[in-house]
Amino acid sequence: MNILVEGIGSMVFSTQLKYYKEMNWNIVGIDIDDMSAGFNNVSKAYIVPRYSDANCFKKIEEIIKRENIDIIFPSVNEGLLEWSKRKECFYEKYKARIIISNERAINICFDKWNTYNFFIESNIPTPRTSLSFKYDLIKPRIGRGSAGIVFKDKLPDNFSMDGKVSQEIVKGIEYTIDVLCDFNSKPIYIIPRKRLGVQSGLSVKGVTIYDEQIIRYCRVIVDMLKPIGIINIQCFKDGDDIFFIEINPRIAGGSSLSFASTENWFKALECFVQGRPYEAKEIIYGRYMFRTFEDVIIDEDDLRIGME
User: Fold this and answer.
1) How many structural domains does the chain have?
2) Could you report the per-residue pLDDT of 110-144, keeping only the tens digit for each?
3) Does the predicted TM-score (pTM) go above 0.85?
4) Is CB count within 10 Å lower at the N or C end of the chain?
5) 265-277: per-residue pLDDT in tens?
6) Cβ contacts of residue 184 below 8 Å, gap of 6+?
7) Whole-angstrom Cα distance, residue 308 to residue 292?
8) Is residue 116, in this structure, part of any structural domain at all?
9) More confident residue, 234 or 199
10) Shortest CA distance to 201 belongs to which of 136, 153, 245?
11) Rounded CA gap, 143 and 149, in Å?
12) For residue 178, which of 169, 187, 166, 167 has the smallest C-alpha distance?
């Protein structure tokens, strides 16, 4: 199979690379930067414009056609909605299947105000949130990780709330829950992992845990949201109190721990694409992940620069 993976210069791709390679797929990667380890670790790599560029998807579509792409794995927040809009079109034109949820689900996850209202309507516990300058934590409505999050007491009274929400501060242990759904939105795996260490919003230490309360709420979220493929959900838990704060409709950098606690989830996704049955494996709880950095050393003559 020919696979298109985006954001190959990111930590998310680096943590998943060995699982992609296990599949013996022909991996075509795209990124906005050719000076990255990922650019030199795929079968073929292309430079593409940023998603803010009007020509971005024109360039990507040319690559899909040229490389006879079978499966596409979107993972960059800024492009998720546009990928979702093109699911039917790209399948009809190129038989390329985009592994992403529908537009409704992406819109709910993409905008924190939409996410908050979804949680309320679904009876999911979540911090109180407002479009006004009301609560102590100020977040961009659309953003990733900890970028743009500030405390109210650090801002002037006339601070503009355009494009932002305020949210009450909640305390507790932070969890990310990796979820794999089939193409009928049936959850195959729901695996909570405790975030033991975070750098720039990314998990660098974690452990899989079994928490019936968290899993039960995540089943409700999946039932109401109807996602497909790999998503992740974030919450804080303090004793019996739990607050869900975010849904990311894509693979997470720390999802490699959930792979390692079951099996390579790409095997399941290949089964879904090919219409073959998949049998879920036993989940190993109490498995730890400690992230480290690895150098990739490349001689100048072997360095991939620009589009192939």
Assistant:
1) 3
2) 999 999 999 999 999 999 999 999 999 999 999 87
3) yes
4) C
5) 999 999 999 999 9
6) none
7) 30
8) no
9) 234
10) 245
11) 9
12) 187
Neighbour tally for 208: CB within 10 Å: 21
Q: What is the spatial distance between Cα 13 and Cα 253, in angstroms, rounded to a whole number?
A: 7
pLDDT score, position 40? 85
| Residue 200 and residue 71 in contact, taking contact as beta carbons nearer than 8 Å | no
Residue 307 pLDDT more than 60? Answer: no
Q: What is the mean pLDDT of residues 249-272?
A: 95
Domain coverage including residue 148: 128-169
| Mean pLDDT across 223-235 | 97
| Number of CB atoms found within 10 A of residue 221's CB | 22
- Measured CA to CA, the distance from residue 196 to residue 206 in angstroms comes to 5
Q: Please identify, among 141, 169, 197, the residue that sits at the C-terminal boundary of a domain.
A: 169
Closest CA to 165 of 177, 182, 183, 150: 150
Assess whether 143 and 94 both reside in one domain: no
In a domain, 115, yes or no: no
- Of 86, 244, 266, 106, the residue nearest 180 (C-alpha): 266
Tokens of 205: 């230490």
Q: What single-letter amino acid sits at 259?
A: F
Contact 265, 189 (CB under 8 A): yes
> What residues contact residue 124 under an 8 Å CB cut-off, 6+ apart?
118, 217, 220, 221, 244
Mean of all residue pLDDT scores within the chain: 93
